[in-house]
């Protein structure tokens, strides 16, 4: 009944302790900021090929560089490897000739054939071939050609490695190397440049290197240095070498043998020391070196200067000519030195000597290995040779 009073509001419903209120899914229980539209929008996916283009450029650059490196490597040359592979096939040529020019390098081929420069063996009397392992063999001249090549033939067997001629020339941009001997008898290898940019031979060769072969990176022969002098020398090509190598070699012009008192190379000879380098050994080395130099020059007066007064009085220049008129000594080693009586010395030396087969005591040979003991006396404050005696039977160069 309406008595004129309004109905009082109902009190709020109590929620028992521990009960959770039921909240409508859409009800807001806390005040939260409205989310930013930029944060709720997913970022766009990068283009599929976004990183592909830099990768392609990187691969192309590295690939091009790698190709250049591979080509540069294929054209480069390691001189040490070439020397190791082909050094044993390069020999030293020594000869007694009428004009004393008999020193060169050479290339050892199959069947005991050696190719060298013709300038080293003009009018030869005797020829010795020294290998890299120190052995010596006699050789004859088969002939020479117009290119300045001389072809020699060993007179006895030699089991050293022999050279191989390349099937073709390397790329014109590929490095080349030359292996030869200097006048002191030391073997070395030189970078010779390329066919397009060759190094000047006069800048890298010693006079003893005439006749030195040229090699490619694999150690196969592709040429040979020939000429009268280093300054006028040139590299004889692969095609020309093939004409004088092997059983089908072209005929060559025989070189006339010398009928003179032939001399060997005139470079100084310094004996090696296989003993301690004491002051006495150094003094012995000097006097025996002077003796060998005078012998090779066929200088009788200079040789007498190395003799004691007593020894010099026992010989004449004619005796010297008969005994040493065509001799050439090389490859000397002093193997023993000891103090002697009266401040003198004794010494033992081995060396190889080339000579004419018609020389006194030659017995038709042209090359022997000698082993001599010297007694040296001190006169005018220097050692001089007073006596020499053989310590062993002379050994032919054709035996080891």
The CATH architecture of the largest domain can be given as Beta Barrel
Overall structural domain count: 2
Secondary-structure-based class equals alpha+beta
Flag low-confidence runs: 1-7, 15-34
Report the sheet-strand fraction. 25-35%
Characterization of the model:
The chain is of the alpha+beta class. It has two domains: 79-242, Thrombin, subunit H (Beta Barrel), CATH 2.40.10.120; 272-396, Nuclear Transport Factor 2, Chain: A, CATH 3.10.450. It contains nine helices and 17 strands. The protein has helices spanning 37-40, 52-75, 79-86, 201-204, 238-242, 279-297, 300-304, 309-313, 317-324, and strands at 90-97, 103-108, 113-117, 124-130, 136-144, 149-154, 176-181, 187-193, 213-215, 221-226, 234-237, 272-273, 328-339, 345-354, 367-379, 382-390, 395-396. The protein has a six-stranded antiparallel beta barrel with strand order 1-2-3-6-5-4. Strands 12, 13, 14, 15, 16 and 17 form a six-stranded mixed β-sheet that branches. Strand 5 (136-144) and strand 6 (149-154) form a beta hairpin. The longest helix is centred in the N-terminal third of the chain and has 24 residues, at 52-75. 34% of the residues are buried. Residues 1-44 are annotated as: Disordered. InterPro entries: Peptidase_S1_PA. The chain crosses the membrane at residues 51-70. This is Serine protease.
